[in-house]
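Appendix B.2, paired examples.
Example (i):
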Amino acid sequence: MDVTNASRTQLMNVATCEWDEGMLAEFGIPRACLPRIVSSSEVYGEVAAAPLQGARLAGILGDQQAALVGQTCFAPGEAKNTYGTGSFLLMNTGTQPVQSKAGLLTTLAYRFGDGPPHYALEGAIAITGALVQWLRDNLKLFDVAPQIEPLAASVEDNGDVYIVPAFSGLYAPYWRDDARGVIAGLTRYATRAHIARAALESTAYQVRDVVEAMQADSGIALSSLKTDGGMVANGLLMQFQADILNAPVIRPRVTETTALGAAYAAGLAVGFWDNTEDLRANWEIDRTFTPKMAHGQREHYYKCWKKAVTRSFGWAE
């Protein structure tokens, strides 16, 4: 088991990358029944059976860590966000673990060969793409998910409508299981287009919540955000994400970055690539979205979002 997957068991000491004797004793788990912890990039063995007989197994990473590697986020402050049903944002924090005080997870990012382990802060968002699905399937606002972009773009702004999709509580950085979903700011002026736009914007606001927590924990300013996952095809969302973060948002040419990251790790181990600079050279940008929103407007939107979030608290008893 590699260090990234071992860290997910909560039985590994993240500082030493070894099984933690105290945790094993607490749960009554014999060390002998656990696998050896290895790096994320080394030759573990060869496949013995056809059709892959002789192929070397050389790269193992957890899902989100593999996406971080696939996005070549190798320097502290480099971050990626995977936009799916929910979203997972990881920021590289370097070779020293950063203990979060803002509701984030400290995790192993990767370890290549005999090199030092690299760490990340991770924030999980429960509902992003699932909100689009909800508008499609439950409210019948459109027939297929891609239709949300032209619908949202048909209005100039959100019409002061904010959606907090706390369908089963809020994850990072709030961790409020008593929160439930709200649509705030409704007037008779609001249309389904404003609701569609508010749904897309809610994803960007939630990502900013996590980014702000990461910056507070690590003291590292976000230099840019690399994106992947199904929602990155939505140009309106990507532009608003750049605007609300006030940072470049980068969409790669290859958006299936989890598989790419595992391939990068394996390629390093077998010498297909010499170093991480080779990986950076192989990674290609499809489009960079740069901030265009005025500071005052950005902070007005975010202030209203934070107000809407508080309205979702305490609903479930």
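Example (ii):
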Amino acid sequence: MTKYVIAIDQGTTSSRCIFFDHTGAIVAVDQMEHNQIYPQPGWVEHDALEIWNSVQYVIRGALNKANISLSEIAAIGITNQRETTLIWEKASGKPIGNAIVWQDTRTDILINELSREGGLDRFREKVGLPLSTYFSGPKIRWLLDHTSGAQARAEAGELLFGTIDTWLIWNLTGGTQGGKHYTDVTNASRTMLMNLKTLDWDPDMLRLMNIPLAMLPEIRSSSEVYAECVLPELSGVPIAGVLGDQQAALFGQTCFEPGEAKNTYGTGCFMLMNTGTEPIQSHHGLLTTLGYRVGNQPAVYTLEGSVAIAGALVQWLRDNLKLIRHSSDIDTLAQSVEDSGGIYFVPAFSGLYAPYWKSDARGAIVGMTRYINGGHLARAALEATAYQTRDVIEAMNLDSGVKLQSLKVDGGMVVNQTLMQFQSDILGVDVIRPKVSETTALGAAYAAGLATGFWTHQNDLKANWEIDQIWSPQMPAEKRENLYAGWKKAVTRTFDWVE
């Protein structure tokens, strides 16, 4: 009898493998960080072979910790960092270069060229996205342009494109020995190449960016049996759920009804609101994207607000400034002061995402005086994530016509008490953390389990969701609005920095 579902969670900074039981509880977990490669300012890369090796490592590690038999595993779900773009040789399985990470801004020249006619929202109605360095399509074009012979080889079917989910599926199902070249609707919707209505690659977008159809994966639903795994440790276990990480968190938080929303605090910060089975076009800087599709059911759409730098700012304070030794130390340092000392930290390291969409912005700390110390910097860094979240919520309220009543949260940063309390204060609503905060991996597990009958209905999953902690606003409304006005002023100081 099957008792467990495996989730492979391949994120921006690490790979994890988590075993879940039928109640959605974590049985075993293993994690391994991978390298961040910065060849020059604005460029961010990953070694895809290192990522594949790390995924194999954490699968073995979690299996050893779980101490269960192969026959007890029902399915494998995959969730992944989105938009990160990779091209590899079909015959050898070798990448033609490092993967270009979602944070990378090297495609800014192409974005500027494409936006000259029609502006940044030129293709929004068709693909739901503004023109931005964030998305995969322009990254594919860059790799084809800057790798000798790549265009001809791609047209001949010798090269394959994939986001990280596709790369893992291909390797887990055989690689050069018959690996399946698939992606799901959520990941495909982040390429700028998938039509929101048809859920297939859009011929006009492929023609515009000169991207050969032959190199693109087949688009499948988020919850269906894709193929069986061929790794000896998981031989014969079906891969049956695939969701981009933020959509997986939405699914894991069981936001199955229109109007339900979640916010994930990870490397970046991402809020998604379920808007039902019809796409809603944003007029306030949000993204219209796929939330999930279960089997042959109608696809569910979301509005999304994406913040590029959240937990990555804490890592920057740790690794670049050496202000803290461990990421968890940020809370202690922030609590050493009463407030941020009047400074604002706008972490536009890769430009500004929602709702501003300014790729030419760069980071700034404003309001500095000699009074400021490391504690103030730490607190301002945490507050930056909360302010950026409010920016997104303000836009979401305008687009959806629904005022947020409370916010479900998940991700690595939700253990930070200072951040969560300030988030509630600056929003003026309750912030709610579930008992299982690993909702990204849980969402992938749910999708895989539904496809294989491990769980029978989406409503069954709601019974697994339990509250762990609630933060309620304690800040006077006048102070809240004054602080937020200061943030808005600080954000404008980062605009148009790159000429």
